[in-house]
Specification:
Layout lengths: L3 E6 L8 H6 L2 E10 L3 E2 L3 H10 L3 E7 L6 H12 L8 E6 L13 H18 L4 E6 L1 H5 L9 E4 L8 H6 L12 E5 L5 E4 L3 H8 L10 E3 H9 L2 H4 L5 H14 L15 H13 L17 H11 L2 E3 L1
Parallel strand pairs: 1-2, 2-4, 4-5, 5-6, 6-7, 7-8, 10-11
Antiparallel strand pairs: 1-9, 2-3, 8-9
């Protein structure tokens, strides 16, 4: 899967050499604009002007207090972002609970979701044709605080300090079934993220030219290897786990595989039996080993499944 690199900053970071960041491979950068009903980030103007001046995909975020007035908070953010929010600008609600819970205190999950939806609606109305998403945790997603279909920027730090290459080699996080558009994988030495699009795709998405991220690519070779080797052997090829997971999701969507009855990312026996059902449904025959419907994917059956369920088959 294609990815590109980015960072985010606030008043805690000194002014950056954004042109050097871009030369070193950075594609996007977001800066904190505001918090709560009245607070503004002291370095927002400095950061965002530098980001835009370097030609990066630019965006801003607002740290939310769901126990305050969502309209006042949206107005605070809109006023801060408006001077910079041209075509291709991204807007993010930073929805995260303070460690002492002070910004969530007194609100139920349902009330927080209503608050989030109100903030998002107001910002979308203020900036039509610009992208508006939510930066939020696994706990918030699990609690149902975010409306379905919202672009997600997801923070999870499995390693502490980490290079971009480490995140790019890892499996895409899937918190509570969500597929984040962006993964913030470390805060050291600064907040680093990868987006699950190429740089060109992210620019097109930010400009409103594509409604969804690019279709995921599934390697036929990786899936066939997974289907014909034991799980212990598959660990030698961990990059195939995402490919298998896409196939499993497609089989679930087609009613061939029961959710919870298989090991995600492993082409196990339930997955193989489900794939055989898919092959039979496509008109292939012969379920014995070596038959056209034996549960081992072929290029034709996998391509057909991908076309119906949103992935592209590659060699």
């Amino acid at each position: 899967m294609s990815t590109c690199r980015g960072v985010d900053v606030s008043a805690y970071q000194s002014p950056q050499n954004w042109r050097e960041h871009r030369t070193n491979g950075l594609v996007f950068a977001f800066a904190k604009a505001s918090e709560g009903e009245h607070s503004r980030d002291a370095r927002f103007s400095t950061h965002i002007r530098g980001i835009q001046g370097a030609g990066l995909v630019a965006g801003a975020y607002h740290f939310g207090w769901p126990n305050q007035d969502p309209r006042a908070e949206a107005e605070n953010y809109i006023a801060a972002a408006r001077p910079y929010a041209g075509a291709g600008f991204c807007h993010w609600l930073d929805l995260e609970r303070y460690s002492d819970g002070r910004n969530y205190r007194g609100k139920s999950a349902a009330q927080i979701k209503v608050w989030v939806n109100t903030w998002l609606t107001l910002v979308r109305t203020a900036f039509p044709h610009q992208r508006v998403g939510v930066y939020t945790s696994a706990d918030d997603l699990k609690a149902g605080h975010v409306p379905a279909g919202t672009p997600i920027w997801y923070p999870a730090y499995p390693w502490g300090p980490a290079a971009f290459t480490k995140a790019e080699a890892a499996a895409r996080p899937k918190p509570s079934g969500w597929a984040p558009l962006i993964w913030q994988f470390t805060s050291q030495p600064m907040d680093r993220s990868i987006a699950y699009m190429s740089g060109a795709e992210l620019r097109a998405w930010a400009a409103g030219e594509t409604a969804q991220p690019a279709r995921p690519k599934v390697s036929l070779a990786a899936v066939v290897y997974a289907a014909t080797h034991k799980a212990a052997d598959e660990k030698k090829h961990p990059s195939g786990a995402d490919d298998v997971a896409h196939v499993q999701d497609a089989l679930v969507a087609n009613g061939r595989l029961k959710r919870g009855a298989f090991v995600r990312g492993i082409f196990d026996e339930p997955t193989k039996a489900a794939y055989s059902k898919e092959q039979l449904a496509q008109g292939f025959k012969g379920t014995k080993p070596g038959g056209a419907a034996d549960g081992t994917p072929g290029k034709k059956s996998l391509t057909t499944l991908g076309k119906r369920r949103g992935f592209t088959v590659v060699a």
